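Long-time lurker, finally posting.

We've been working with Nitrogen regulatory protein P-II (marine metagenome) and I want a structural starting point before designing mutants. I don't trust myself to interpret raw outputs, so I'm hoping someone here can both generate the structure tokens and explain anything notable. Sequence follows.
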Amino acid sequence: VAKKDGDKGRGKIFILPIEECIRIRTGKDTIG
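Top reply, 14 upvotes:
Generated this for you. Predicted structure of Nitrogen regulatory protein P-II:
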């Protein structure tokens, strides 16, 4: 159960930064 909980938490944490990174990259591309 602990491993499954960690996996879920990691997935959510990973998805959030990835979306932010993509947004930041797109914004830099548009600005540049």
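Before you design anything, note these points.
The mean pLDDT is 69.
The helical segments are 2-31.
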